[in-house]
Amino acid sequence: MSSEALRKTPLKESFTVQGRVLGALLIREVITRYGRHNIGFLWLFVEPMLFTLGVTALWTATKSIHGSDLPIAAFALTGYSTVLLWRNLPGRTIGAIRADSALLYHRNIKPLDIYLARIFLEVGGASISFIVLGVLFIAIEWISPPEDILMVATGWFGIAWFGAALAIFLGTASYLSELVNKFWHPFSYLLFPLSGAAFLVSVLPRNFQEIVLLLPMVHGVELVRDGYFGSKFTPIYDLSYLLVFNLVLSVIALMFLRYVSRRVVPG
Amino acid sequence: MIRVENLCKTYPTRFGKKLVLDNVNFELKKGEKLGILGRNGAGKSTLIRLISGVEFATSGRVLSDMSVSWPLAFSGAFQDNLTGVDNVRFISRVYDQDFKHNLAFVEEFSELGDYLREEVRTYSSGMRARLAFAISMITEFDCFLIDEVSAVGDARFHARCNYELFERRADRAMIIVSHNTSYINNHCNKFALLHDAKLKLYDDFEEAYSDFKTKIGLADSKVTNDPRPKFAAQSRKQLIDTSNTSALHDEKFFNKVLEAHMRGEEKKWDEARDGYASALEIYPFQGSYWTQWAHMVKDGGDPELAEMGYRTACAFGESTGEVDEFFTHVLKKQKRFPPVNPLVGLTPGPAHEQPSTIPDVNLLAIAAWGQEDVGREELIALMREHPKCDSLFACLVEDERFAKFHAEWLVVEDGLGSKALKARVKRARPIEDAHLWAANLTSISNAAESERGVHKISQMIEVKKDALPILLAHGGFSDWPKSQAALRARFG
């Protein structure tokens, strides 16, 4: 760091500042994104809810998959919610530093804070949507309650982590090259059918399973589904693969972040 | 204290690395105010950003035990689609301060009223500046970074900003970057010049300023004062338009008038007048600084010449209402009470109908007599007798000096379209850079119909004697009836 204080700030104080900054950024982000009109920040989770509801309704109506005794509503809910969780995150962080670079004039706000605020908000929205819809479906008895909530939470957390690391990686990379933005869109569309949202790994042919299991989110979705209705199918996943993948991606993302932070020229 | 140690900054560009700051060192103690001079793009703002910590240095470091502000009054620091109030709330949160107290201050200081509850994107630039400054004053810092604070806002707003900054916060350290050298002179006690990526420190403003002038080529301008035209205006009207706007963006012009302004503040009227005159040599058709020039002439005790200055200013678009008070004053001083007010504003219509001005006299005298400066008495007499450009030029043509200067053509019997004239025009070889006077003369003579044309014609005018033949050959002055009559009489 080239501009440094002679007095070292105690860690506790740093945490307080960090919390304050993140809180301020979160509220600012909510207001800038959703404004104060109509239902305001409720859109945060109403928007993903509408998506998931639509997809669930569509899949239920067409019974498009496998015709087995799988609970189709739970299948759609877990599938589409997880897609929203990881796929929307990079969309929030790509270009974020450029858009918010003026905020960096405030000494305590760093690029990571801008990313974290956006990530928390997005993860929060997707999670609330997932929970609310889950509770709603259970209440109207479309689906039965999860068999193992902790397992659902673990899977959910794993995907959120993956999404966050991916978001920081792509966000920082997009600062270095505009191509990232151009390629991410088609790429994320292509990833969707492979991501495990619309299939169970166990029904795939063996050699195809191996390829699909290279994708970390597939492990996450399987884990979430294992928690929800694991007794109805054979889940195939490897939690440690997901965690190691996340860890490596996080390290790379933070390296990029460090590289970019040193080169940001605020507007 | 802030200590800047061996600070270097390079930016990658398409053409390789550009060194913006090269080994910058300085120290700033509590209460010290450092003013940084430097031309546009010298890296002043970069230095401010490095100190504020938003940007990282390539090497070297900034150490401080003071809290350092963000660059003050920087209006980019708030979010456009938030309201003013939301912005205040955000800053209060980030800096852990009482929101209600802050809002009360911002409401009082910015005087934005209900607009504070509107989105910032609806604000005018003046309103933004008021909000930005008010928000900057919310948080208390030990050191303030000020980057061009005087760019927007009216005089009253500036006075209040200055009170908040330099009186209420007189004990703080400050780093001030500005084009406005007098602003730096008034508020700083340490000075620095940033040039060619190097920072040099001074204790004395005059010393810093004279170095600054040398570096940006202001100091020696007296010696090489043959500025080149920066644009080719197609008509006199366009010349006035373009001069008025582009002069204000011209660094050289700006610095010259700033210096003249400083001399004026010191009541050195003659120096101030010469300062404005030297700026106006670059943009003779710029209106508002002719007013300043006239003020200096008036205060220097020459009401007659001042009268001509005011007339010139108004002819170039200064508001006659504004100027009238001074104009009446200089007329009274001369005990002259003309029946018709000679103060005329910007007149639409062709050049020959437009009011004659000081630069017109000078330009037309070059064309007619080859004389750059007709002198004070003659200038006053000419402008008084010939309020319009056409009759002014006709009078110059009828003068003896015209016959002498253009004797070569006048002996030829076949008049304006003479063979000798044409041959002379044909012989003219374009020079690389046109003379400024040639370009301006071409513009007002209306010889060309396009900017390209003006450019080409003015390039052919290498010496004064050639100006008139070349312009006439291209149809210049053709719609000036009185001048045409006078010219015809000359050429038989």
Highlighted features:
heterodimer, A: mainly alpha, 10 helices, globular, B: alpha/beta, Serine Threonine Protein Phosphatase 5, Tetratricopeptide repeat, 6-stranded mixed sheet, 3-stranded antiparallel sheet, 23 helices, 51% helix, elongated
Q: What's the SSE blueprint?
A:
The complex is a heterodimer of chains A (about 270) and B (about 500).
Chain A: E1 3-5, H1 11-34, H2 43-62, H3 72-93, H4 96-99, H5 111-139, H6 149-176, H7 179-194, H8 206-212, H9 216-229, H10 239-261
Chain B: E1 2-13, E2 16-28, E3 33-37, H1 44-52, E4 59-64, E5 68-72, H2 84-94, H3 99-110, H4 125-136, E6 143-147, H5 155-167, E7 173-177, H6 181-187, E8 190-195, E9 198-202, H7 205-215, H8 236-249, H9 251-265, H10 269-282, H11 288-299, H12 303-315, H13 320-334, H14 358-369, H15 376-385, H16 389-398, H17 400-405, H18 407-410, H19 419-427, H20 436-445, H21 451-460, H22 464-473, H23 481-491
Parallel strand pairs in B: 3-7, 3-8, 5-6, 6-7
Antiparallel strand pairs in B: 1-2, 1-4, 8-9
Q: SSE order of chain A, as H and E?
A: EHHHHHHHHHH
Major sheet of chain B, described briefly?
6 strands, mixed
**Beta-strand percentage of chain B?**
5-15%
3D shape of chain A: globular
Work out the helicity level of chain A. over 70%
Global mean pLDDT of chain A? 89
Tally of discrete structural domains of chain A:
1
The fraction of residues in strands of chain A falls at: under 5%
Beta-strand segment tally of chain B: 9
CATH topology group of the largest domain in chain B = Rossmann fold
Largest sheet of chain A: none
If helices are DSSP runs of H or I spanning 4 or more residues, what is the number of helices of chain A?
10
Specify the helix fraction band of chain B: 40-55%
Largest interface: A-B, 32 and 35 residues
Which CATH class of the largest domain in chain B applies here? Alpha Beta
* CATH architectural grouping of the largest domain in chain B: 3-Layer(aba) Sandwich
How would you name the oligomeric state of the polypeptide chains in this document? heterodimer
Mean pLDDT of chain B: 84
Mass-distribution shape of chain B: elongated
CATH superfamily of the largest domain in chain B: P-loop containing nucleotide triphosphate hydrolases
Computed over alpha carbons, the radius of gyration of chain A is 20 Å
